[in-house]
């Protein structure tokens, strides 16, 4: 998964103008957000589905949007009398984005894309919906589609810092390193006190072979926020690369203490245990990583083979 530790902040702009059941909707939104933060994605999906049902009526037939909405049984009108989306409350678009984020958390990428499509159909000027859809495209390794959506998000909101970070990652994935760093540097100018921008620029520098620059960015990020787990993860990787095993182990452990869902941190500790000949401890760490992110198994197993082959 391509660093989607990037927090996808949802901007509740221009919402709450009218709702048939405002108190009910607000309570559901709150429960859905809490469930998402607790990584209880199924509950989050259920809550935001209820928000959609309460705030919109979507009788869609014969229209260009029909393919996007027809499977959304709980959010469709029953009479089928029209073919236009009728939104009673603009919270509907936000709820689709929020539910899409929960689907992304579950790695249900097609469901996430469908929900972001719906949000955009309802609210075409919602920059965060394009940003979220682009994030899924990065995960799918569709840099071309991701770049198109990031461009749209940034056209709508030229000061959208996370949009520049996302586009920088997509540009780096597509091989356009120079343009990628233009985005990362511009994000730093827009938000010079945001640890996230230094972390992502550091990650890009590490991928580009600028190890010293990467380390400097990770450490600057941690100077701004000592509780930023991804920056510890990044610095741990640099320390492991430089064979500072104690420093790397400490950074991975700090990252896990702050976020116990970082598969790469468990894998990093596993590599260190393996180098030190502690095979059972290493296997336990690798199993943690596999449980959290099954897609990383082949990458981790390849690294294990390299480590074993390098041992004297």
Write the layout of secondary structure elements.
Blueprint lengths: L21 H16 L3 H15 E2 L8 H4 L16 E2 L3 H15 L3 H14 L4 H13 L3 H14 L4 H13 L3 H14 L4 H13 L3 H14 L4 H13 L3 H14 L4 H13 L3 H14 L4 H14 L2
Antiparallel strand pairs: 1-2
Helix pairs in contact: 1-2, 1-4, 2-4, 4-5, 4-6, 5-6, 6-7, 6-8, 7-8, 8-9, 8-10, 9-10, 10-11, 10-12, 11-12, 12-13, 12-14, 13-14, 14-15, 14-16
Descriptive keywords:
68% helix; Serine Threonine Protein Phosphatase 5, Tetratricopeptide repeat; 312 residues; globular; mainly alpha; 16 helices; single chain
Concise synopsis of the structure shown:
The protein is mainly alpha-helical and 312 residues long. Among the domains are: 1-123, Serine Threonine Protein Phosphatase 5, Tetratricopeptide repeat, CATH 1.25.40; 228-312, Alpha Horseshoe (Serine Threonine Protein Phosphatase 5, Tetratricopeptide repeat).
């Amino acid at each position: 998964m391509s660093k989607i530790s990037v927090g996808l902040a949802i901007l509740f702009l221009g919402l709450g103008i009218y709702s048939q059941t405002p108190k009910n909707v607000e309570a559901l939104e709150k429960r859905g957000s809490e469930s998402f933060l607790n990584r209880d994605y199924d509950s989050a999906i259920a809550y935001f589905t209820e928000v959609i049902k309460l705030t919109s009526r979507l009788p869609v037939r014969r229209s260009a949007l029909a393919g996007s909405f027809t499977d959304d049984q709980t959010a469709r009108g029953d009479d089928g009398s029209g073919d236009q989306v009728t939104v009673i409350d603009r919270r509907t678009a936000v709820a689709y984005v929020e539910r899409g984020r929960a689907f992304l958390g579950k790695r249900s990428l097609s469901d996430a894309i469908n929900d972001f499509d719906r949000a955009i159909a309802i609210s075409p000027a919602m920059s965060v919906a394009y940003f979220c859809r682009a994030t899924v495209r990065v995960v799918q390794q569709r840099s071309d589609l991701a770049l198109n959506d990031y461009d749209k998000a940034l056209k709508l909101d030229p000061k959208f810092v996370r949009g520049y970070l996302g586009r920088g990652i997509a540009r780096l994935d597509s091989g356009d390193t120079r343009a990628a760093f233009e985005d990362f540097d511009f994000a730093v100018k827009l938000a010079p006190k945001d640890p996230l921008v230094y972390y992502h620029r550091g990650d890009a520098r590490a991928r580009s072979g600028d190890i010293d620059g990467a380390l400097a960015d990770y450490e600057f990020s941690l100077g701004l926020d000592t509780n930023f787990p991804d920056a510890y993860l990044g610095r741990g990787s640099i320390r492991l690369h430089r064979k500072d095993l104690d420093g790397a182990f400490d950074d991975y452990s700090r990252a896990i203490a702050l976020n116990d869902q970082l598969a790469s941190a468990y894998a990093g500790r596993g590599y260190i245990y393996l180098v030190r000949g502690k095979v059972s401890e290493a296997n336990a760490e690798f199993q943690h990583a596999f449980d959290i992110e099954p897609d990383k198994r082949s990458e981790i197993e390849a690294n294990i083979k390299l480590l074993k082959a390098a041992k004297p």
